[in-house]
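Subject: sequence -> structure tokens, single chain

Hey, anyone have a minute? Need the predicted structure for the following. Not urgent.
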Amino acid sequence: MPRNRRRGDTGSGLTGLGLGSSRQPPGPRARFSLWRAIVLAVVVVIGGIYAAPNLFPPDFALQVTVDNSPRTFDDGLLDELAEVLETGGVPVIAKERMPDGGLLRVGDADQQLRGSALLREYLNPPGEERQFVVALNLASTTPEWLKGIGGEPMALGLDLKGGAHFVLQVDMEEALAKRLTDEVEKIKDMLREERVRYRSTANAVQGETIRMGFVTGQLRDRAVGIVEDEFREPDYLLEAADVAGQPGFVITVQQTRIDEIESNAVEQNLTGLRNRINQLGVAEPLVQKLGGSRIVVDLPGVQDAAEAKRKLNQFANLEFRLEAAATDRPSEIEAWPYAGGTVQLNRRVILTGDHVTHAVQARDGESGLPVVRITLDSEGGDMFHDATAPNIGRRMAIIFIEHRPVVTVDSVDGERVERLSSRAERRVITVPVIQEALGFKFDITGVTMLEAQDLAFLLRAGALAAPMYIVEERTVGATLGEENIERGMLAVGAGLVLVLIFMAVYYRVFGLVANVALTLNLVILVAVMSLLGATLTLPGIAGIVLTVGMAVDANVLIFSRIREELKTRPPAQAIQAGYDRAFLTIMDANVTTLFVALILLTIGSGPVAGFAITLSIGIVTSMFTAIFGSRVAVDLIYGGRRV
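Reply:
Had a minute. Here:
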């Protein structure tokens, strides 16, 4: 008869699972796979290297670049700016030259803001055109050897670490004036078709009104009959009145129409800003309307704040006008400076940059000079063709319009108050001869390489309905309070520690294996996000926490399967079968979750996209560490010996 087993005798059980006894005799030796160990070691080393830059927090810094100054940025100017900061009570930790400017590192965010004000006042006197761009930045402290192999820290969102924050003011007066100028052109076209002569329209737009004069009252009455269907209440109020002592009419824009024009201007500017920011490569930006005439732009983890500020604060457009003909009336002719002389242009604008769908900087195939290749939309192509086809052999001017920020200083109740505004600068960049009827694609010549780059960028991003200027700039910290963030991180850390303790106590050796795999999963996840340039936000941290849970769940499935297999198999075979049979279950659960994450990433934006990208990467890394990594650890412990 078989002997009774003594109490506490575990026989040949797999004690690493903490399962007590097993009725199966010792089986064959467990197998150790060398190739799996090598692959895991390579992945862990690479992951550790590219996750390491996140251990080096960035410094607060002021980045200064040349904008319109004839002065070059050299070491002397860098020392001069450092002295300005030191004199103003802002200690400079370090300073360094950059290709187009300099970087001065300071101690904290308060010193950064005070230093920015000092440098702006020193470099850009009020009332003059901006000479230098002073931007707030976060300077990297990653060792050069890590940078040399492409190692960069993971960008943190505004809700965790901050970034560049801008508030832009839309010039509503300019938006209204621009729209009313378009309406004047429409009225002129309607009157020309009916052969109704009108007086000069040079000052037709005055505030919220359009004023047009005529030689006789009869012509005025005919004009009113022509335009009254287009300009009527509730959007417009059309009234007969004297204009400059002559018969005429006044069209007053009603408030409902003004609100609509301003709303459309903000929406168009929002679209243009989003296109610009997409070209800057900023991850998860926030561009949204603030009140009735302002736009907020948050650029989390921005690497080049000076370049971002320059692009956001640069507003330009194009106008195409025909050279004046001998038959044009004097009131329709305008003189422009060009090439050391003047050129006579027709006031009528035949096309603007609003119709540009694509623009790219290139070089002419024959001369090698820089050009801007333009593609128009269907409406713009038709308009351009209709304007150039009957004027072959006539010259056409391309006018570049740029709005520059200007700071003016006023005294209010004895206090110095700075006011920001924009100043439009118009110049003729080229006056080519129309060789053939132009359509949807053509080249702009006569520009420098820098002008071609900026013009292509601005036109590609889309024309703005009105100029804007930056009224507020700062670096921002967590959108949640510091105390709430600390408590949140404490909760996440406490939960992770409890999971590690539970796995170690309940599954013993296998629990320690799961904990090692979980730690490796976090390291590899951070490394992959750093390599991809992903931005980590609070929703992203939620994705990491969910990834931790899924990684532990995968190990629980594996260990539970091994426990079932131990009832009928020797331990070595139970380990093999447990991993093999749990694989399909783990794959099904993770793939379905991955599909949902990819859908969120495709249709979502902002925090939703941040959560989705972290979850997507985490699912892949957790499957690798839970299935592949833990298998290597188990083989390393039990491989080569009889268990």
